[in-house]
Write a structure and sequence with these properties.
This protein has one domain: Galactose-binding domain-like (Jelly Rolls, Sandwich). The protein has 1 helix and 11 strands. The strands form 3 sheets. It has a 5-stranded antiparallel β-sheet with strand order 1-11-4-8-7, with no helix packed on it.
């Protein structure tokens, strides 16, 4: 009987412990050469319309990246909603040339908040595409681009 109660307790604990990240995907940029035509696409299928979310964009580049910034176009689509797109600029380095973000070996990771405290309008899948929008094509030394969706809390990292 004690084993049974122990197993039930473990099951309940594991069911109640949900990861704080609801969606976390990365697209590797082939040969670290990002073409305009190579949009990174992410599809979130399980949509909760009750909770609020924070949506983050992640970029990783190596130390040979030639620019201090990165211009991107972000395209969003959800059925029964208006398709949107916006052009954003990400600052990757300080004015003195020192890289921002976290360093791991020769890679630098930057995470930017795209949407804060956002509620989805319906349960249909949500698609987001990220396109590089620099003057140079392709841009070199971008390793990957990712999207992370987490339930909103006042102290979400």
């Amino acid at each position: 009987m004690q084993k049974f109660i122990f197993l039930i307790s473990i099951c309940l604990i594991s069911l109640s412990c949900k990861l704080s990240t609801d969606f976390n995907e990365t697209v590797v940029i082939p040969d670290r050469e990002w073409e305009y035509s190579n949009r990174a696409e992410f599809v979130i299928d399980e949509i909760d319309t009750v909770s609020s979310y924070d949506l983050y964009l992640r970029i990783r580049h190596d130390k040979k990246y030639e620019f201090s910034n990165l211009f991107l176009k972000v395209y969003e689509h959800q059925e029964n909603s208006i398709d949107t797109h916006q052009r954003i600029e990400l600052t990757l380095a300080e004015a003195d040339g020192k890289w921002r973000g976290e360093n791991a070996g020769n890679l630098y990771m930057h995470e930017y908040l795209l949407k804060e405290n956002y509620k989805f309008s319906d349960t249909s899948s949500y698609r987001i595409q990220i396109e590089q929008n620099m003057r140079q094509n392709p841009i070199l030394h971008i390793a990957d681009v990712g999207v992370r969706l987490v339930k909103h809390t006042k102290n979400t990292p």
